[in-house]
Amino acid sequence: MNLMSPATLGQLVVSTLRAPRPTFRVLLEMGLPRDVLWQALTLVAVLSLILSVAVNAVFVVQVTGSEQVPPEEIITLSPLMVGLIQFAVLVVSVFLIDWVGKKFKGTGSFNGAILAVTWLQVMMVGVQLVQMLLLLALPVLGSALTLLGMVLFFWLLTNFIAELHGFTSLGRVFGMILFVMVGVALGLSFLLTLVGITVPR
């Protein structure tokens, strides 16, 4: 199976939406080397960054153009900073999926964790692309897709982790994801407070 083929990628994307666990199992059984997985994660992170910048640019133009918000009140980060933050989040996610899963007696591998994050990001890049097109054509639907994208994100992540580590209960996996996310958020908040960084209100 040639993953770089547009036709193959399209089939896998559709298959993932229909049956996420079996499709992810097929990807796992391909046994891709770790260096290839890291390269794929880096590539998809770059694509996600490009689309994020594009979607943000469209959003800023629409908001400022409609005079809902003055341009000077739109706060944006540099693309480099956004890219570094996104990639750091992806890498941390890989280690968390591997470590936390094994703490709960999961049977997944580290390579599988990289694959889970990479393929999830591929799916989210597709959502970003559709969102950008909708923002240009139908802005109202573009906003609604953001919510749908969040639901899809958690649904796919839950299924990927369950398949990777051999868990049977999707509800417990989802609860574990929320628990870890809250823990990480609280930990980051505590560290930022220690170094004197506060979130502006």
TrEMBL record:
Q: What is its main location?
A: membrane
Q: Which InterPro entries does this one have?
A: Yip1_dom
Listed A to Z, the keywords are: Membrane, Transmembrane, Transmembrane helix
Q: Where in the cell is it found?
A: Membrane
The name on file for this protein is: Yip1 domain-containing protein
Q: Where is the Yip1 domain?
A: 15-186
User: Where on the tree of life does the source sit, at the highest rank?
Assistant: Bacteria
Residue ranges annotated as transmembrane are 41-62, 74-97, 109-127, 134-157, 177-199
Q: Which Pfam families match?
A: Yip1
Q: Which organism is it from?
A: Palleronia salina
> Which cellular components does GO assign to this protein?
membrane
Q: How does it sit in the membrane?
A: Multi-pass membrane protein
